[in-house]
Queue: 3 jobs
Job 1
Amino acid sequence: MNEQEILPVAVDKAHIVQESWPALSEILQTKFDCIAVAHGLNDISRAREWSTSRKPVSPEKKYVKRHKNVLVSVWKDDLTTHRVDAVVNAANEGLQHFGGLALALSEAGGPQIQMKCNEIIQSKGLVKTGDCVVTQAGSLPCNYIIHAVGPHVPKNHTNKDVEKVAPLLTKAVNNILKCTEEKDLRSVAIPALSSGLFNFPLRKCAEVIVCAVERYPFARRQPVEVRLVNNDDPSVDAMLRQCTDIFGPSDPTAAVTSTKSDRRTAEVPVSSVQIGSVTLHLKKGHIEEEKVRCSFWLCLV
């Protein structure tokens, strides 16, 4: 039986592999009798461009409305600096934060975030679409990161493609709010999940997220603030329109729930291998059984 090794490559090193891939694959085959298969090469440049296109913004609250026991607000802000109990990360199934918001949060929060995510994948396997996992937030100005895996649609998707996976986006939002209740949080910041690298159309994304918040059966009596936070105008405007349509005009007199002042120390797992800025994870098994989305890795056979 052939042995297979999966080696995730950090995004800041992936361009080296990308540029030297023909020579690297030839060396691995001639010197070590290994067939190397690269996954995600085409996504690397796009992911880096998406993450570097994020511009710093000043926090700006565009909308606030009390709905039952929930305070819904729309913000234009950078999630890496947004002060809230928990921020939501738009993660992939392998929790490999290689680009976009995921990379920005991981870099701002420190290496322990990716290390903890690697530990979760090693112990529990890939995170299914629609599910969430929670980690400490490292150096971010919040207590937790809720890593939510939203649905992915093809770049040239059809309406049928979108409608087919829309329930998974609803599921992801429900699980985010469930985590908020389980952790007894007062506030959570949710971005336009799946609308970036995962190609989910922005208008539909906003509709699904806001509807999910409106319909979620919050069980506790303590008020919770759900902040819809993005740093780009199209996403902010889409959330603002949906909130106005579903909840009505903004209520400027509504009180904003404060975040918890205590910060918990982030956990740093010990079962990991860090070589410089590269986190190395070796896995033996069948490559056809692996489902790694939006990440870059090598398979050596």
Job 2
Amino acid sequence: MNYIDSFQCYLQEEGKRNRTIEEYVAAVLALEKWVFERTGENFNPDFLTSRDLHEWVSFMQTVEKLAPATINKRVAAIKVYWSYLIQAGYSILNPTIKVKRKRISPLAQAPRWLSRLEQDKFLHQIHKEKNAWKKSRNLAIVQIMLQAGLRISEVVSLDIEDIDLKRRIISVSKAFYSDYETRNTLSYKKLLKFYRTHRLFSSLLKTLFLPKFSRCQSTVTNYSSIGRARKLRNNT
């Protein structure tokens, strides 16, 4: 029998996000497809064993060559599916108990970053925006992501109170990465230093620190003037 529809309803009642529901259903359908191609019979949860599931995991590794993280997501989804089947009375045994998730090394979990060329291309596209306000906004968003390594969801979740002008930092609290909790802070001084060096943060500084931007620019100018004066004095 096909329990996909009722499984979807169950996940909705559990408050799962639509994206999560889609991933869980896709995992179950992938397993059903593998069973049919392997046996020529329709999927029946009562006839599936732990050995079958281990072979499916091996198939995903060696034939489909899926990433360990993807395999783990599918295994997690199948475990939830069987928990539902047992809870609903559609199955008695749970073959997923002995199926373990693959251990992923920290190196494999490390996020991929954009190369300097990719960053330049990205910023170049933003500078094409003719609307000055939109361009400043987009630069602020993108530079925060590039310089602080924030995710899209973390940037979207930023509130006014997260920008501390007195301490000159932007805080992102309770940002979860895999199995640990971290706290990212974007230093205002680092922004200013980057601005002095590369002149890419003008719009970002104006957008995030507008009240203090004029003072910062004058400070940079004063520093430059002092530096030139010292150089001239030393030469003489």
Job 3
Amino acid sequence: MPRKFTYDLLRLFRDSYRDTTNLTSNGSPVHRLIEQTSLSKACEIQQKGRGHSIDYWLWADLIAPESQRLLKNVIRVEQQEEADIFYVPFFTTISYFLLEKQECKALYREALKWVTDQPAWQRSEGRDHVIPVHHPWSFKSVRRYKPGQVYLEKDVILPYVPNVDLCDYKCVSETQSKRSTLLFFRGRLKRNAGGKIRSKLVTELQSIEDIIIEEGSAGAKGKVAAQTGMRKSLFCLNPAGDTPSSARLFDAIVSGCIPVIISDELELPFEGILDYSKIALFVSSTDAVQPGWLVKYLRGIDAQRVREMQSNLLKYSRHFLYSSPAQPLGPEDLTWRMFCSLCKCWDFRDTVIFAITVYPFHARNADCWQAGEHQVAYSAVAARGQRIKKRMHISRIAVALLYLSLA
């Protein structure tokens, strides 16, 4: 794509980083997009800090020199004709938060026109294109320009990038005996939509001695407070927010704090690959707000099960840590493997545009690939209103970045 949709937006973020770190505090992803990114003269990304944007990490993996890439199930190709799918590397959230409203909308329309004018799009009407939409406001003004664009059986859900540091083997060993808090939550205590349950949980839990429920804050101090609290707790409360999921779930996982998920509509990343019952507890909203029910339930979990789940959290953390270079069985790898399965499952004449989202309120992953030496995919797909399961061997897929004009 032209530079204005990729490199120029990264430069804008870098140049305005200090001024916008807390521009929209308490929930905005601005301060968690791409920290301290620099651009070399060759216009290659050199990542110095930690990235907090899913579209950035996938793009960074694809543009890395092939000799440095560790993932081999997806390859980048230069010619559109060689591609199985097309990844659209447009940083929609950066533009939303850092440009004026009308300027942002104009850039969205321009990006959309550029993409839809390409021969690759016109051949398939976008059915084999991957568009990263990782925030409910990203690309909002043009996102639903085509009926049926969001289709629940083929959209892929990805995890947020954790906002706290990994609690590794040494950390887990040191903190295990210090986890004196039964249940911890730090975040916005009042939310809209499905998040209204938070205020009910606050009323029910806030006065209990070994439970910590507190209002969260953005920035470095907020991160330290959340990280410290999670590392001192056995369980971390994960109620719905404005959407069924939040970054807090993945913060808990990498902190060794067993997530207690209270969200009746939640679809989780890589559900066909990962068994979340080994690392998290699922509680219905109805049960959670019953007086005394949740506390009694948590206190009734035996110590052996807690230790097993803590051990599993340590093993599962790798699946939620974005990195450069992208690691085998990391989130980038699992994402590409899911697309491998979807490419073989779907008849592109019948389906629509792939979308990547970390806000699962409008997406459902139907891929059922399970990790293993033989990489056998079990994919549940919808075809003409019926559920069909197919068994297949995954092969590499070729991805063409819509990246034809750098001028």
